[in-house]
Write a structure and sequence with these properties.
The chain is of the alpha/beta class. It has helices at about 50-60, 75-85, 145-160, 175-185, 195-205, 205-215, 255-265, 270-285, 300-310; strands at about 5, 10-15, 40-45, 65-70, 90-95, 100-105, 110-115, 140, 160-165, 190, 215-220, 225-230, 240. The protein has a single domain (about 5-20, about 40-300), classed as Ribokinase (UDP-N-acetylmuramoyl-L-alanine:D-glutamate ligase, 3-Layer(aba) Sandwich). This is Adenosine kinase. One of its GO terms (molecular function) is kinase activity.
């Protein structure tokens, strides 16, 4: 059995500005801004949707194949992946570019200025599948290279491989037809409630109409858990609660962790409701840490936390 995780690999470079951005912005000069913010330190963390999903799957004992592209500065990231038992065979190395990076500057009121440099992520992974097994393989298509997001939908659909469709941040870039194609061939469409509204607006389809095309929609609602709606019984949604956390340190990456737990459950042939509960458990670990790949747990600890939360 293979689990394919496509999407972005990136470094998150995090800075904190000891002041307010608004104090340096002159409203009557916004047409001609030239502003510099002094920061004392920069912290680098591993990130990217595919990297985040693969990380938590590795903690859950799985060895997914990451499909993405990375640059000449990827060695430190690759070393961590290897130590986790993750394969690098699906990652295209682009030697003349840097790995994608998000430069995030936060002021004292938690306002953020972010610049995302795609760099190597502009290259498709060009992965050659030796064989796709519809009876065993699973996949998730998460935000990443646009060509990958289009071609993988077709490849998985042709091979009848069950995949989770998660267009996320790339929703504004994908055409209505591309979004509908991704939804129609997916096993599950996963998004938060805002992203789902964006998909509906872009495709001019209602949620019910989207569900009639695909098989299942899972809508994540942050601290309010998630809702599962199946095409066969659209009028009876299933609610999955969020798992209690000791403290909310950083919600960034919780959605990717949820997808990891969901994939884990599906790979173990559980019901979608139980798989979503695994997702909620995984997300709880993530929000308790600063960074998207800083949480750790053993399978035993994960099982105990899941059982405590869901009886």
């Amino acid at each position: 059995m293979a689990i394919y995780v496509s999407g972005s690999l990136a470094f998150d470079r995090i800075m904190n500005f000891k002041g307010l951005f608004s104090d340096s912005i002159l409203p009557d000069k916004i047409h001609n801004m030239n502003i510099s913010f002094f920061v004392e330190n920069l912290e680098e963390k591993r990130g990217g949707c595919a990297g985040n999903i693969a990380y938590s799957l590795a903690l859950l004992g799985k060895s997914p194949i990451v499909l993405s592209a990375a640059g000449k500065d990827f060695d430190s990231y690759a070393k961590v992946m290897i130590n986790l038992g993750l394969s690098l065979k699906g990652i295209k190395r682009v030697d003349n570019k840097f790995t994608a990076a998000a430069y995030i500057n936060t002021d004292t009121h938690n306002n953020q200025l972010t610049a995302f440099c795609a760099s190597a992520l502009l290259e498709p992974c060009d992965h050659s599948f030796q064989q796709l097994d519809a009876s065993k393989d699973l996949a998730v298509i998460s935000p990443g290279n646009m060509e990958d997001m289009r071609t993988l939908v077709r490849k998985y659909a042709e091979a009848k491989v069950a995949y989770i469709y998660d267009p996320g941040q790339q929703i504004p870039v994908l055409s209505a037809d591309e979004l509908l194609d991704g939804v129609a061939n997916s096993k599950i469409l996963v998004s938060n409630d805002y992203e789902l509204e964006m998909i509906c607006k872009s495709t001019q389809k209602t949620k019910a109409e989207l569900l009639s095309l695909g098989n299942c929609i899972i809508t994540t609602l942050g601290e309010n858990g998630s809702v599962i709606q199946d095409k066969k019984d659209y009028q009876t949604p299933l609610a999955v609660k969020a798992v209690p956390v000791s403290q909310v340190v950083d919600p960034t990456g919780a959605g990717d962790a949820f997808r990891s737990g969901l994939l884990f459950g599906l790979s173990e042939k559980t019901s979608i409701q139980k798989a979503a509960a695994f997702g909620a458990t995984c997300a709880a670990y993530c929000v308790e840490c600063a960074g998207t790949q800083e949480h750790v747990f053993t399978l035993k600890e994960f099982q105990q936390r899941y059982e405590k939360a869901f009886n």
